[in-house]
């Protein structure tokens, strides 16, 4: 088993970063992976102060003066996020993330019929600063917003491929699709599919739009409010 988990505590920049509130989705990228320059190929051009960021990432004494030391860590956070996205696609990275998945660190699917299926983090883009992280449910194959405390993590820290690589490497963990599906009913009767679709006929402007009723009653309604009150439209003769 890998030792690359949150149980490692030291004064390094990585320990400080992983300990921040809201960063619990992230796993620890091991030192030997960070020290292999090959793993950073192509990232030099994506991070503005690459050398400084890498120095910070590898700094073992960063937190000795306390976290409030005034150092700008934005570039280091981006670099760590991008190398983290690469690491979790490796067998060791999948193993580390599997520990967190089985512990329920990434939360569960909100769909009733997914019955608390555990989720995995996913990005909707592989580029930094495009989208925040989402969670993917392997039962219904949909994506959702994570709990608020994790919602500000960048999606590129996980990338678009991670959950799919995860289940390719661990196919035994792939769950069955939901056995039940929600059925819309009205007074116990199942609704026809057409009844659930938006109306096909466009709404027409009332012919007597100049009347005092339409002006005073509907003239100032926002479109969203008006859409909630279709039965209140003036009667046409
Ligand atoms: Zn689901």
Automatic annotation (TrEMBL):
SUPFAM superfamilies: Casein kinase II beta subunit (SSF57798). Coiled coil: none annotated. Belongs to the casein kinase 2 subunit beta family. GO terms for molecular function: protein kinase regulator activity. SMART domains: CK_II_beta. The lineage of its organism: Eukaryota, Metazoa, Ecdysozoa, Arthropoda, Hexapoda. It holds the Pfam family CK_II_beta. Residues 197-225 are annotated as: Disordered. Signal peptide: none annotated. GO terms for cellular component: cytoplasm; protein kinase CK2 complex. It comes from the Eukaryota. Residues 208-225 have a biased composition (Polar residues). This is Suppressor-of-stellate-like protein.
